[in-house]
Structures are given as C-alpha cells and as structure tokens.
C-alpha cells in the first residue's frame, strides 16, 4: 500500500496537464474557442469521478462479502473523493457553460442529472451519519451505495442521450472526437484522466489511513489498564 | 412460492384490519388534490396540460413516500425477529414489493380518478396514461420498499426516507412524466416505446437489486 511511484506519477502527470492545459496548443474551434482547454479539467474530472464511484461501489460489494471494516472505510472515502470531484466538475462545467452557452447553469438534462447524483451521495453521507453502531452503519451504507450507483449510471449516461442535451454526443450534437482531428487534445486528455484518478485515490488513501489510526487509538483507549 | 403467498396474504389482512391507515392514505391524497385545486383557484381549465401532468406526479410522489414509509416500521421489532426465524429474506422483500405495488396501483388509480374529476381531464390517450401509472406504481413501490427498509434501521426515519428516495426516484419520475406527457398529447405509441422500454429496464434493475441486497439489510 505504501508505494511511492504512483504519487510521483500523479504529480508529474498533473504538472504536464496543467502546463499543457494553459499554454499548450489546442485546435481552433468556433464558439468553443480557447475554452476547449477545459476538456482536460471538466471532462477528465467527470470520468475520474465515475471511476472513483465505481471503485467505491466495488468496495461496498466487497464489504458485504467479507465484512471487514476496512473495505467499508475505503468505499466511503472513495465516495467522498468522488463527491468532491463531482462538485469540482460542476464548477468547471459552470465556467465553461458561462462562456459557450451564455449561462452558468443552463437547463440541461446532464447538468440536472449530475446535480441529482451529488444529492444521492450527500444522502449517502447523511445515512452514514445517522448510525452510531459501526457495523450496522457499514452494512446499511454499503447497501445504499450499491443501489445508488446502479441508478446513478442510467441517470447520467443513458437518460441524457434520450432527450436533447447541449452536451456533445447527445441530441444530435457532434462528439468531441470529431473536433479533435489531429489528436492534439487526446495527447493531454488521457494523461489528465489518469492523473485525476490517481489524485482522487491519493486523497482517499490519506483519509483511510487517518481512519485506521483513529481506530487504533480508540482500541488503545478502550484496552488501557485502569 | 407458498411462503410468498402466505406473506402477501398476511400483508393484505394486516392492512384490512387497520383500515384507518388505508383510508388515511386515500384521504391524504384526496385532500392534497383538493388543496391544489383550491390554491390554483381554477375557473375553466386555466391549467396547461404540462402543469396538470407535473402536479399530478408530484402529488403521487409524496403520497407514495408517505404510504410506503411505514411498511417496515409499522411492525414491532419482536415480530420482525419472528419472521426472521421463519422465512427467507427474499420472499419477505418480494412480498412487500408486490404488496406495495398493489397498494400504489390502487392509490394512484383512485387519485387519478379524483384528480381528473376536479381538475379536468385533458388526457388524449387514456390507455397509455394508465400504462404509465402502472409502470410508475411498480417502480416507486420497489424503490421505496428497499429505501424504507434502509430508513427503518436508522433514527429520524421520515427525513431520511425523503432524502434517500427522492434522488433515486428522479430518473423514474422524469421518464414517467415524459411518457405521460406523450399520452396526454395522444401521440402515437411508437413515439413512447423508448420511454416504456427505459422504464421497464429501470424497474427490472431496481427489483433485482432489492432482491439481491435485502438479505444483507435483513441480517443487521
């Protein structure tokens, strides 16, 4: 668990992404213009969020199978960093929408889906907060996490495709792949996705370790000789 | 199978013995409709069809949350342990889902009848509208049954029930509103096939997940 190479990789990738994102060459496009740079942040953050939430769901599943409290810790912290990315994704999207669609929060099914997804995960943390007993909390929160993720995916990826959305790839809009003829964007976009995912894992890992320390301290307090 | 039937029958008898709960829910629905009617101060069909439709589904949503919230909390703790020792969790959740589905169908049909009576009935294609009510009733019932199971384990049940279930119900609600809007305009059935298929898929996902996840919930 305590390997350093992926943290170094994460820093290098994100440095590359930030530098290329602000000063690197990008394709010239109508309407989008320079805001296309936001692809490295907004789109990559959403993909990273989905990955983190998927991982969180898998750890919840693992908890239900093996019952180790650590699996639940990991699941909840992954969900927390996923939620954090979701909020960041909304903010970056807001900036982008302000310049291209002329409104920080246009009435778009994907946006609303994202907002509902955030509500779902806020509800997950509310649910966690309402239990005192640790085992009970872990078990019930895991059940809700799996259930929520199963609804979250259609909400954010399938429903917007059925209705008209301003986002690329739905409602007759072209996808980004057609803008990106010479793969300029792709050269930075894929490293960006990996970098953001690694950063999210790092955030989650730090909090998991904090929880492990807290648990050990509690145990020592309970077992201390009087 | 026999277990399932017995449990389902138990739910129905229990409901029939405490008829005040059932009539309470019906009255809740009717008075909400009436409050809406009076608040909009309708003269002659001033409500546009879209508002008419949305209002109906929101009333139905709140009725559903209230009606199903009690499906685990109405029985005493001791009795739940008794069931635990008697039957498998799968048949318990299925019986509850079926029962709540039936309850929702009855409630929403009655509600629809009364709503159409006081607020006017602009529906173009009644058959399709009834299908959307049916699909929504099944979907709401299955989501809310599992969420009620989750919420009944925690304190401050009522708030948690709403907070947990609304975001999960939303995709379903949006699809149903789309579908019933098509029915309202009397569009061809081919147009709505997408929505019907998505709703059926969502219902299937939710029911399967409840079936798989409930045993873990039940054990705690």
From TrEMBL, chain A:
TM annotation in the entry: 40-61, 82-99, 111-127, 139-159, 188-206
Ranges for domain Cytochrome c assembly protein come to 34-162
Q: Which GO terms describe its biological process?
A: cytochrome complex assembly
Keyword Transmembrane among record annotations: yes
Looking at the UniProt record for this protein, which Gene Ontology cellular component terms does it annotate, in alphabetical order? plasma membrane
- List the subcellular locations: Membrane
Query: Which molecular function terms from Gene Ontology are attached?
Result: heme binding
UniProt keyword annotations, A-Z: Cytochrome c-type biogenesis, Membrane, Transmembrane, Transmembrane helix
How does the protein associate with the membrane?
A: Multi-pass membrane protein
The record's principal subcellular location, in a coarse class, is membrane
Return the InterPro entries for the record. Answer: Cyt_c_assembly, Cyt_c_biogenesis_CcsA/CcmC
Extent of the signal sequence:
none
Name used for this protein in its record: Heme exporter protein C
What organism does this protein naturally occur in? Rhabdobacter roseus
Lineage at the top is: Bacteria, Pseudomonadati, Bacteroidota, Cytophagia, Cytophagales
UniProtKB/TrEMBL annotation, chain B:
The record's subcellular location field reads: Membrane
Which keywords appear in this protein's UniProt record, sorted alphabetically? Membrane, Transmembrane, Transmembrane helix
Membrane-spanning intervals of the chain = 20-42, 54-72, 93-117, 129-151, 158-179, 199-218
Query: Which domain of life does the UniProt lineage start with?
Result: Bacteria
> What Gene Ontology terms describe what this protein does at the molecular function level?
heme transmembrane transporter activity
What is the membrane topology noted in the UniProt record heading this document?
Answer: Multi-pass membrane protein
Has the keyword Membrane been applied to this entry? yes
- GO cellular component labels: membrane
From the UniProt record, give one GO term of the biological process aspect: cytochrome complex assembly
Give the protein family.
Belongs to the CcmB/CycW/HelB family.
The name this protein carries in UniProt is Heme exporter protein B
């Amino acid at each position: 668990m305590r390997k350093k190479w992926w943290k170094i990789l994460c820093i290098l990738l994100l440095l590359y992404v930030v530098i290329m994102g602000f000063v690197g060459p990008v394709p010239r496009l109508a309407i989008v213009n320079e805001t296309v740079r936001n692809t490295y942040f907004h789109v990559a953050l959403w993909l990273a969020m989905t990955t983190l939430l998927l991982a969180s769901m898998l750890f919840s599943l693992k908890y239900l199978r093996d019952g180790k409290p650590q699996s639940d810790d990991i699941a909840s912290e992954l969900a927390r960093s996923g939620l954090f990315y979701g909020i960041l994704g909304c903010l970056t999207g807001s900036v982008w929408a302000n310049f291209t669609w002329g409104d920080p929060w246009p009435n778009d099914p994907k946006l609303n889906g994202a907002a509902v997804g955030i509500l779902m995960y806020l509800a997950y943390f509310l649910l966690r907060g309402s239990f005192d007993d640790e085992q009970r909390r872990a078990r019930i929160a895991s059940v809700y996490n799996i259930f929520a993720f199963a609804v979250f995916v259609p909400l954010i990826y399938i429903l917007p495709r059925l209705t008209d959305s301003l986002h690329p790839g739905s409602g007759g809009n072209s996808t980004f792949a057609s803008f990106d003829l010479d793969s300029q964007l792709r050269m930075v976009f894929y490293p960006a996705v990996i970098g953001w995912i690694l950063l999210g894992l790092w955030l989650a890992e730090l909090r998991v370790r904090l929880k492990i320390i807290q648990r050990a301290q509690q145990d020592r307090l309970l077992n201390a000789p009087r | 199978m026999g277990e399932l039937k017995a449990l389902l029958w138990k739910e129905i008898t229990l409901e029939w013995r405490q008829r005040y709960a059932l009539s309470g829910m019906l009255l809740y629905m009717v008075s909400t409709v009436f409050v809406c009617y009076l608040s909009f101060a309708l003269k002659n069909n001033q409500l546009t069809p879209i508002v008419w439709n949305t209002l109906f589904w929101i009333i139905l949503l709140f009725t559903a949350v209230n009606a199903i919230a009690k499906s685990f909390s109405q029985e005493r703790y001791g009795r739940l342990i008794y069931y635990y020792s008697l039957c498998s969790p799968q048949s318990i959740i299925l019986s509850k889902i079926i029962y709540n589905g039936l309850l929702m169908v009855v409630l929403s049909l009655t509600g629809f009848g009364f709503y159409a009576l006081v607020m006017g009935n602009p529906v173009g294609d009644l058959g399709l509208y009834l299908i959307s009510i049916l699909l929504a009733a099944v979907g709401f019932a299955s989501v809310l049954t599992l969420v009620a199971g989750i919420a009944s384990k925690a304190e401050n049940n009522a708030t948690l029930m709403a907070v947990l279930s609304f975001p999960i119900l939303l995709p379903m609600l949006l699809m149903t509103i789309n579908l019933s809007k098509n029915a309202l305009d009397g569009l061809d059935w081919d147009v709505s096939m997408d929505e019907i298929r998505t709703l059926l898929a969502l219902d299937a996902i939710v029911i399967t997940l409840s079936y798989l996840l409930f045993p873990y919930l039940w054990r705690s």
